């Protein structure tokens, strides 16, 4: 019953008109008075922001704020994999032989997430990491490795919540939400970076379209809170043993190494 009620109310509110209203409001100067309460509610560290709060004219501008260059340390390394976002590293595990990942005790199809069984097959028995960004997190995405972009594509039309209730009761949001996937090749194999849209706003903006990603550089940003999923081929990734998942991570922190 709880699951059905949750889905009913989400379907009721997640329509084009409600998305447009929210987008209009957050992009309007009318939303500026909400910035200070937003900072307080999410305990945002103003000292690391590139500009003071009064610089931002809309809640949306504040939401996609940049940080001071020294605010994040990139732990560069040829064999290092660093966090692409400030987030809760919520789940990590093995992609099953049926090409599924299990998040909040719920299976998600990697074939559906990537759009085809053929693409998913490369990651069978590999490793996945799920990074959840709350509204208060810094929302710019950085490259976890040095890699060559082999392909980028987008799937899905609507987006549903990717918070804890959304993952538990929603209709497979990680595999069905609007999402943009970038596949990277590196010396040891291939990595899929899945950027998942959040409820109401299906917008993921690229910072550049270069064919090469450099570790730690900004590559995209979310217009509203969401999730990043990393998929590694089998035998190519080892999780940092010092991480007690779930745990908070920041851009540039080492989350693992190449096998």
From TrEMBL:
Pfam families: PS_Dcarbxylase. Transmembrane segments: none annotated. Keywords: Decarboxylase, Lipid biosynthesis, Lipid metabolism, Lyase, Phospholipid biosynthesis, Phospholipid metabolism, Pyruvate, Zymogen. Its EC number is 4.1.1.65. It comes from the Bacteria. Its cofactor is pyruvate. This is phosphatidylserine decarboxylase. It comes from Bacillus badius.
């Amino acid at each position: 019953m709880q699951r059905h009620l949750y889905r009913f109310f989400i379907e009721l509110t997640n329509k084009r008109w409600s998305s447009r209203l929210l987008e209009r409001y957050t992009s309007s100067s009318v939303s500026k008075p909400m910035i200070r309460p937003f900072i307080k509610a999410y305990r945002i560290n103003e000292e690391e922001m590139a500009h003071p709060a009064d610089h931002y004219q809309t809640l949306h501008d504040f939401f996609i704020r940049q940080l001071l260059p020294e605010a994040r340390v990139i732990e560069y390394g040829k064999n290092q994999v660093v966090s692409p976002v400030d987030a809760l590293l919520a789940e990590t595990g093995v992609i099953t032989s049926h090409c599924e990942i299990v998040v909040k005790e719920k299976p998600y199809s990697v074939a559906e997430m990537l759009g085809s069984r053929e693409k998913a097959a490369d990651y069978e028995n590999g490793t996945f990491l799920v990074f959840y960004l709350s509204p208060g997190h810094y929302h710019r995405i950085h490259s976890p490795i040095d890699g060559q972009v082999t392909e980028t594509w987008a799937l899905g039309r609507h987006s549903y919540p990717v918070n804890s209730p959304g993952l538990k009761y929603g209709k497979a949001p990680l595999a069905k939400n609007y999402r943009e996937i970038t596949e990277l090749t590196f010396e040891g194999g291939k990595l899929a970076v899945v950027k998942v849209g959040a409820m109401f706003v299906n917008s993921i903006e690229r910072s550049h379209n270069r064919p090469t990603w450099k570790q730690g550089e900004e590559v995209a940003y979310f217009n509203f809170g969401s999730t990043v999923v990393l998929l590694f081929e089998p035998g190519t990734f080892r999780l940092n043993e010092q991480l007690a998942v779930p745990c908070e991570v920041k851009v540039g922190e080492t989350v693992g190494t190449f096998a």
